[in-house]
Amino acid sequence: MLPSPADQVAIGDLLARYCLTLDLDDVEGWVALFTEDASYQVYGRSFDGHAGLRKMMGAAPGGLHLGGPPVIEMDGADTARTRRNLLFVDRTDGVSRSAVYTDELVRTADGWRIRNTRCRFITAEGLADRPAR
Question: What is the pLDDT of residue 132?
C-alpha cells in the first residue's frame, strides 16, 4: 500500500533528520529518531535499544551522510517499510562508502520512528554486511 501524502512527507522528514543529525554530531537527536526498543544491524552486529545506538555512534566515524529518497511501503496504518540508499563520506580521509538501508518504521505519539534498520554496503560482489576494503 502506498503512503498518504502526509505520511510520505513525515517519513521523508524522519529520514532526512537521520542524515542531518549525524552530520551535525547530534547523537541524542539521532537516537530520538528511534523507538526505545529499536534494533540496528550493521557490520554483522546488532545494536539494540537507545543504549546500544549510543554505543554504536560512540565508535562510528563522523562525516557526511547523503541519503536518497526512500521507497515507502505501508504495512497498515501505523507501520511502514522503507528502502533507501546512502553515501557516506568520512570527514577525516574523504573515503566514501555506499549502502542500502532497509527500515521498519512505526507511528508513535511523537510521530514516525525507526524500529529496525539494516545497513548493507554496496560492493563489487553485491550487498554485503561489511564494506569492501
Answer: 80
Number of Cβ atoms within 10 Å of the Cβ of 1: 10
Residue with cell 554496496: 122
- SS3 call for 8: helix
Distance between CA atoms of 1 and 96, rounded to whole angstroms? 34
pLDDT digits (tens, 9 = 90+) for 43-99: 999 999 999 999 999 989 999 999 999 999 999 999 999 999 999 999 999 999 999
Kindly tell me if the per-residue pLDDT of 1 is higher than 80. Answer: yes
Q: Which three cell numbers stand for residue 100?
A: 542500502
**Beta strands at 79-90 and 63-67: parallel, antiparallel or unpaired:** antiparallel
* Residues 24, 7: Cα–Cα separation, whole Å: 25
Strand blocks (E) in the chain:
34-42, 45-48, 63-67, 71-74, 79-90, 96-108, 111-123, 126-128
